[in-house]
Amino acid sequence: MADFSGRAFIHVDGITLASMPGATMNPGGYSREPVITDLGVVGSTEKVVEARVKCDAAISSEDDLVKIGSTINATITFETSSGSTYLVRNAVCAAPPEYTSDAAKASLEFFGKPAEKV
């Protein structure tokens, strides 16, 4: 029987985030667009698309939101509970973390080079 993922474990430069259910990862890769002429579709163009990791993380007194928001050139590991692991190199925090006090969590988003399965 197949094993399906239900949880994600996210590490930023070796530090484990207390990610909450619902974390997402877009592994990036290539985006393709058709080249259309009067003859119809004659091919395609392609461009690199960055990997993106998004999550809400529980924030405690030990966490530094400014430091998290200043993340640049990091290595992010996205592990699934079924055993798949993806590596995003040269990752940066996309925007300052948005903290929600009544839920003790911050919304985080990172992007970097297309992910590699390891």
Distance between the termini: 23 Å
Largest sheet: 9 strands, antiparallel
- Categorize the overall geometry: globular
Taking Cα atoms only, what radius of gyration do you get, to the nearest Å? Answer: 17 Å
Strand content: over 45%
What would you say the CATH architecture is?
Beta Barrel
Fraction of residues in H or I helices: under 10%
> How many domains make up the coordinates?
1
Secondary-structure-derived class:
mainly beta
- What do we call the CATH topology? Elongation Factor Tu (Ef-tu), domain 3
Global mean pLDDT? 95
How many H/I helical runs? 1
Total strand count, please?
Answer: 11
Quaternary structure classification: single chain
Please provide the ordered H/E string of secondary-structure elements: EEEEEEHEEEEE
Low-pLDDT runs of 5+ residues are: none
Tell me what the structure shows.
The chain has one domain (8-117): Elongation Factor Tu (Ef-tu), domain 3. By secondary structure, it is mainly beta. It has one helix spanning 65-69; strands spanning 8-12, 15-16, 24-26, 29-37, 40-49, 51-58, 74-80, 85-93, 98-100, 105-112, 116-117. Strands 1, 2, 3, 6, 7, 8, 9, 10 and 11 form a 9-stranded antiparallel beta sheet that branches. The protein has a two-stranded antiparallel sheet with strand order 4-5. The longest helix is centred in the middle third of the chain and has 5 residues, at 65-69. The two termini are 23 Å apart.
Concise description?
This protein is mainly β and 118 residues long. It is built from one helix and eleven strands.
